[in-house]
Write a structure and sequence with these properties.
Helix content is 61%, strand content 2%. It has 13 helices and 2 strands, in the order ααααααβαααβαααα. It is mainly alpha-helical and 233 residues long. The longest helix has 31 residues. It has a two-stranded parallel ribbon.
Length: 233
């Protein structure tokens, strides 16, 4: 995740408040949808054109629903969002995708029956590697490139994901790989899948990139700490 940019990254006050308490983690998951929306609003990101279109269409549909179904229709949608983002098995993909169940692996796929109902959303590594491939073809990506995915850790049960997150002593809201926006932009600009010849010189590039990421992350964290100190004064 990108610090200060991704709304699925817990805020620091969430991390301090929830800690690794199973009961607090349980209720944190219950209100996950509320927190997701709250983080997005707190980041104050400028809406894109398509997001504005989405807002307009959503408002039109809500007004039409209220006209046809009244308050009960709106209450149904609100409860659906609340329950669908909470402890619902389908909502476990928010935890499954990027929480570090194994050290050194940032992204995880889910290969279970839920993919039949949630449009293959579990094929997350495959989606990251080929974001333009439609959801219907993601299982085919896994099949034809099995040597790149079979050695990675993956999940087969969303219910197990929720249970492990709540009960595990090594999983908590802070169990994420986080990078600064500068490091993210550098990687998007300079890194690509190398050819066989280019791969030979990859070691030096990886070393330089790791150093740049470390420095960028340290600078970003120091900037945040300095702003907090100034704000406290």
């Amino acid at each position: 995740g990108v610090y200060g940019y991704d709304p699925d990254l817990p805020l620091e006050w969430e991390i301090r408040l929830i800690g690794n308490d199973p009961i607090k983690k349980f209720f944190w998951l219950v209100i996950y949808g509320v927190m997701y929306i709250g983080r997005g609003l707190a980041q104050q990101k400028q809406l894109t054109r398509w997001e504005l279109y989405n807002w307009a269409w959503t408002i039109v549909c809500d007004v039409a629903l209220y006209y046809v179904c009244g308050p009960r229709g709106m209450l149904y949608l609100l409860l659906s969002v609340f329950l669908g983002f909470g402890l619902h098995p389908g909502a476990a993909h928010f935890i499954q995708e990027h929480y570090t169940f194994r050290d050194g692996q940032e992204t995880y796929s889910y290969y279970g029956s839920g993919n039949y109902f949630w449009l293959n959303i579990g094929y997350h590594n495959e989606h990251h590697d080929f974001p333009l491939v439609p959801w219907t073809k993601l299982p085919e990506v896994k099949r034809v490139a099995a040597e790149y995915y079979d050695h990675l850790a993956f999940h087969t049960s969303w219910c197990a994901v929720l249970y492990m997150f709540i009960t595990s002593s090594v999983l908590a809201p802070q169990s994420r790989v986080v990078r600064s926006l500068d490091a993210h932009r550098y990687a998007r600009k300079n890194l690509k899948v190398p050819s066989a010849d280019e791969a030979k010189g990859l070691a030096s590039v990886k070393s330089e990139f790791a150093l740049r990421m470390k420095k960028a992350a340290e600078m970003s964290m120091e900037k945040v700490r300095a702003q907090r100190i100034i704000g406290a004064q």
